[in-house]
Amino acid sequence: MGRFAKLAFTPAVKALQEQFGSRAAYARVERTGDAPDVLTDDEAEFLSQRDSFYMASIGSNGWPYIQHRGGPQGFVRVLDAHTLGFADYRGNKQYISAGNVSENDRVALIFVDYPNRARLKVLARASVITRETDAATLDRLAVPGYGAKVERGFVLKLEGFDWNCPQHITPRFTEAEVDTAMRPMVSELHTLRAENRALRDELERLKRSPV
User: Fold this and answer.
1) Cα 6–Cα 56–Cα 111 angle in degrees, nearest 5
2) Which backbone phi and psi does 104 adopt, to 5 degrees?
């Protein structure tokens, strides 16, 4: 959280932390170095399981814009310990995030694991690549077997990240997650139904048998 805290905790933020009694605790976790935070295996594993995230960028008029991004599980790639990336597929052609990044490369992202009530906040500097500017990286961002057309890619140079507390994250489950969780119960139900049919058949046979 060191670099994240240094970027996020502005003087106004610190003043409020002081006013409401949290400044001393946060001051202890701030590191003095200016080096960007480094992704570990924990963050890489977490990101590999995500199928969506939210990204905020800032327009030239100062207004923030938050966009939901989704794709196959693991579509956000960890390119190295300081870099994330994802392919940008053809959509509604508004190009708001791409346009904002072309003028201000600062972005903020939040990744949420709803079933396990975990979230990761990321601050990064974003750039847009195309096949003409960086075909090799764009190939690394493409998801094999995913039919949508890749128009460009976003490369995110990590500045800082912070794991957020689970409070107020309501558990939500995708269809695939529900299917996986229900599979043992569905299998058991099929077994019980088969046993029930067999018992009914045996009962009917016994009813028809002469006493």
Assistant:
1) 80
2) -140, 110
55, 97 contact by CB (below 8 A): yes
Of the pLDDT bands very low, low, confident and very high (cuts 50, 70, 90), residue 32 is: low
Place of tokens 């990744």: 111
> How does DSSP classify residue 149?
P
Residue 35 gets which letter from DSSP? S
Q: Are residues 136 and 77 in contact, defined by beta-carbon separation less than 8 angstroms? A: no
Give the pLDDT mean for 203-207.
85
Residue of 43, 28, 114 whose CA lies nearest to 77: 43
For 132, residues 6+ apart whose C-beta sits below 8 A from its C-beta are none
The whole-angstrom separation of Cα 70 and Cα 92 is 14
Cα separation, 51 vs 46, in Å, equals 11
Residue 31 has a pLDDT of 63
Which DSSP symbol is given to 81? T
- In the predicted model, is pLDDT for residue 211 greater than 70? no
Per-residue pLDDT band for 36 (boundaries 50, 70, 90) equals confident
Adjacent-strand bridge partners of 78? 84
